[in-house]
Amino acid sequence: MQVVREKTFVPARCEPGLFVLTSQIKGERREGSVVGAVLLGLSLLLGGTLAAAQTAPPREWHTPSAGNVARGMALYQDRCTACHAVDSNKIGPAHRGVMGRRVGSLAGYTYSVELARSRLRWTPQTLNTWLEDPEELVPGQRMGFQVEEAQERADLIAYLATLK
Ligand code: HEC
């Protein structure tokens, strides 16, 4: 019986010291890892901001070259009228007055939220980017159509500019 008591007594006396020691070590480790995580977070944030600032230069706008209105009109009939009309909303909005109009602003047509909120204006430059790749200009927009040829875009834009 005595042996059993001693056995249980000895570790009980050692335990408080051990406990303080291990909790101190744990405490230090925890503080250390918190500081480390904060520093890591800050450096990631800083690195991310710097990287973003370096890799995202302001957009370059490309003014289309001179366009041919007659060719633009033919292209419009051929490519755009499945979804658009000059004077009425179809799948896409009506185009009369589009040049100079705020993007996504024609009353009576329900635009994607992304287009309506884009805060851009239709100019030869914005139209050029839009027709080349609508998704690049306004991510989340709903026009699934692109015009890859630069001269065709220029012709279309020249025609759109006549729709006053
Ligand atoms: C497959 C259908 C489709 C075709 C083809 C299409 N569009 Fe669109 N277009 C749309 C839709 C849909 C929208 C509205 C997009 C949104 O709300 O995100 C739109 C929007 C536009 C706008 C924005 C107008 C505004 O009021 O802000 C322009 C400009 C435009 N299209 C030009 C063209 C031209 C030019 C062509 C032909 C080369 C063309 N689209 C072909 C469906 C189409």
CATH topology of the largest domain: Cytochrome Bc1 Complex, Chain D, domain 2
How many domains, in number, for the residues?
2
Tally the beta strands: 0
Shape: globular
Oligomer: single chain
| CATH-defined architecture of the largest domain | Orthogonal Bundle
Give the CATH level 1 class of the largest domain: Mainly Alpha
CATH superfamily of the largest domain: Cytochrome c-like domain
Bound molecules: heme C
Mean pLDDT: 82
Summing up helix and strand content along with how strands pair, one would put the structural category as: mainly alpha
Radius of gyration: 33 Å
Brief account:
The protein is mainly α and 164 residues long. It has helices at 2-55, 69-80, 113-116, 124-132, 134-137, 150-162.
Task: Please explain how this structure is put together.
The chain has 164 residues and is mainly α. The chain folds into two domains: 1-57; 69-162, Cytochrome Bc1 Complex, Chain D, domain 2 (Orthogonal Bundle). 59% of the residues lie in helices and 0% in strands. It has six helices and no strands. The chain has helices spanning 2-55, 69-80, 113-116, 124-132, 134-137, 150-162. The termini are far apart. The relative contact order is 0.13. The model is unreliable at 6-23 (pLDDT under 50). The protein binds heme C. Residues 79-80, 82-84, 91-93, 98, 103-104, 106, 111-112, 115, 127, 130-131, 141-145, 147, 156 line the site of heme C.
